[in-house]
Amino acid sequence: MIFLVDASVYVFRAYHSMLPDMRDRDGNPMHAVFGFARFLGDLIERVRPSHIAVAFDQRRADSYRNRIYPAYKANRERAPADLALQFERCRELCRHLGIAMFVDPEYEADDIIGTLARQMRTQGMRAAYITRDKDLAQLMRDGDVFWDFGARSQFGYHDIERHFGVAPERFADYLALTGDDVDNIPGVPGIGHRTAASLMKAFATLEELYDDLGSVAQLRLRGAASLAQKLTEHRESVYRSRLLTRIACDLQLGVGAEGLRRRAPDMRSLGGLYDQLGFGPFLRRQGERLAQLPVG
Fold first, then answer.
1. What is the Cα–Cα distance from 141 to 118, expressed in whole angstroms?
2. Please, what is the Cα angle at 95 between 50 and 266, to 5 degrees?
3. Which of 126, 139, 156, 221 is deepest in the core (most CB within 10 A)?
4. CA angle, residues 18, 19, 21, in degrees to nearest 5
5. Which whole-number Å values give the CA distances from 195 to 106, 133, 191, 236, in the listed order?
6. Distances in Å between the alpha carbon of 105 and those of 88, 249, 292?
7. Counting runs of H as helices and runs of E as strands, what totals does the chain give?
8. Percent of the chain surpassing pLDDT 70
C-alpha cells in the first residue's frame, strides 16, 4: 500500500492548533513545521510504509482550474507570510526525512495524489489517502483507505457512500450539482446535498441525468417538479463545475514506484534543519527512531 499525504490539511491543523512560540534563528514562527514533523513521524512509526508521498498545493492565479473559472478559490485569503515560509520548510523537511515530495504550479495536491494512486494501482498497489478533504473520496477504490490520521477516523471504499451519501465514482458529479463554497464553485441553486445524492442514485452519470430530465419530476424528492427547470438553466455551469471538481489523474510526474519508496532520514541534514528551526530534542529522538526502521 502507498500512503499519500495531503500536506495542507496537517500543516494548517498545526498552524491553528499550536501556540506560535517556536521560532527559527531569524525569529520566524515555526510551530506549524514542528506539528507537521511530529505528525509525519507518528504516521511513519505507526504504519511503517514501504511507499509514501507527500503532496503540497502551490496557489497560482494562472493554474489549470483558474483558467477554466477565474473565480475559483477567489474567496480565499492569501496565506500569511509566516505560514507561507513554514510551508517551504515543511517541503524541505520531507526531503530530509526520506519522503518523496511533490508540488506543481499548474495542478493541486489532489491531482498529484490522484495521479500517484492511479499509477500505483496499475502495479497492484492500493492507496491510503491521509487527509480530511472530502474531495479525495472520489479516488477511493476497493481496498483503499480514506484516513484522517489526526482524528483517527478511517473509511474503506464501501464506507464512503454511507458517510458522505454518494459513491466515490459519483463524487465529482455530486459536487458539480451542490457546488462547493470552500472552493467558490457554483452549484445549482436549490439543490443541496440530499437532493444531489438522490439524483446520483437515480442516474448513473451526469450525462444520463441531462439526457432524461423528463424523469426528474417523477422522483420522490421535495421540489422534484421544479428540478428539471433548475438543471436546464444551469446546465453549462454544472458541466464547467465538474471540470473543477474532478481530480486530474494524468499528470506527468516523472516518477516510478522506486522513487516512492521510503528512505531512511538523513540525520545530519535533518539535525541541521532542526538547529536552524530552533527545535529541541523531541523530534531528533523521533528521527533517530525512524532511522532504525526498515526502509521501503
1. 10
2. 80
3. 139
4. 130
5. 33, 21, 6, 19
6. 14, 16, 35
7. 13, 6
8. 99
Tell me which amino acid residue 137 is: A
Residue whose grid cell is 523530534? 283
- Supply φ then ψ for residue 2, to 5 degrees: -100, 135
Q: How far is CA 11 from the centre of its chain?
A: 12
Per-residue pLDDT band for 61 (boundaries 50, 70, 90) equals confident
DSSP 106: S
Evaluate whether 287 touches 264 at the Cβ level (below 8 Å): no
Neighbour tally for 81: CB within 10 Å: 9
Query: Does the pLDDT value for residue 62 go beyond 90?
Result: no
Euclidean distance between CA atoms 185 and 135, whole angstroms:
13
What is the rounded average pLDDT of the residues 81-98?
94
Go through 94-123 and write b for each residue having 16 or more CB atoms within 10 A of its CB, e for each that does not: bbbbbbbbbbbeebbbbbbbbbbbbbbbee
Residue 296 has pLDDT above 70, yes or no: no
How many angstroms separate the CA atoms of 173 and 196, rounded? Answer: 9
Contact 33, 93 (CB under 8 A): yes
Task: Rounding to the nearest 10 degrees, give the CA dihedral for residues 146, 265, 57, 25.
Answer: 130
- Per domain, the residue ranges of the chain are 2-164+254-292, 168-245
Name the amino acid, one letter, at 138: Q
The answer to whether 56 and 79 are in contact (CB under 8 A) is no
The answer for residues whose C-beta is within 8 angstroms of residue 222's C-beta and 6 or more apart is 195
- Looking at CATH, the fold of the domain delimited by 168-245 is given as DNA polymerase; domain 1 (1.10.150)
Q: Which CATH architecture has domain 2-164+254-292?
A: 3-Layer(aba) Sandwich (3.40)
Query: Quick one: DSSP state of residue 77?
Result: P
User: Please, are residues 262 and 296 in contact by the beta-carbon 8 Å criterion?
Assistant: yes
